[in-house]
Design brief:
CATH architecture: Sandwich
Shape: globular
Strand order of the largest sheet: 1-2-3-10-5-8
CATH topology: Jelly Rolls
Number of domains: 1
Oligomer: single chain
Radius of gyration: 17 Å
Mean pLDDT: 89
Distance between the termini: 55 Å
Number of helices: 2
């Protein structure tokens, strides 16, 4: 058995250049031995667990949907606004919610204190394929190319055979 305590897991901070997006994440699965770059599912684990903290007035990331990943959320403290295709819903401690692949979502701190929650995500990448994200507000995609490197691309809808013949 592997065991960790949250207080011993370093909190990783990430924020956007203008500060609209700001988060602190404790990667519980990585602390328990998950190897994010491995294609071996025994080393990747079948799901990821993270403890997330979003400061007042900030969002985790832009509105997006995953092509293959499912995410389950459990709010620990604070108040949040969860945007989906139907608008925004307020959530608070004890609330749980779930997004399947293709369901757009965005989490924002809507209270006066930090918004803290757990997120459990399945781990769909196997055999070199996996999840990509679409950002409807900006028309961007986050995709993985060879070597598991993630890139952000922006393009226009086109015909399937465009540039192929």
């Amino acid at each position: 058995m592997r065991k960790v305590n949250l207080k011993d897991i370093p909190e990783q901070e990430r924020k956007s250049p203008k500060g609209k997006f700001h988060k602190f994440v404790r990667n519980v699965s990585v602390a328990l031995g998950r190897e994010p770059e491995s294609l071996d599912l025994a080393k990747r684990h079948p799901f990821d667990l993270a403890l997330v903290r979003i400061p007042k007035g900030k969002s985790y990331c832009p509105y997006h949907s995953h092509s293959a990943e499912s995410e389950l959320y459990l709010v620990i403290s604070g108040r949040g606004s969860v945007r989906d295709k139907d608008g925004s819903t307020m959530v608070s401690a004890g609330d749980a919610f779930f997004f399947q692949p293709g369901e757009g979502h965005q989490l924002t701190n809507a209270g006066e204190e930090d918004f803290v929650y757990y997120v459990i995500a399945d781990n769909p990448r196997s055999g070199g394929t996996g999840d990509s994200c679409f950002y409807p507000d900006s028309g961007k995609w986050a995709v993985v190319r060879e070597g598991l490197e993630e890139v952000i691309v922006k393009g226009k809808e086109t015909d399937y055979f465009d540039g192929e013949e």
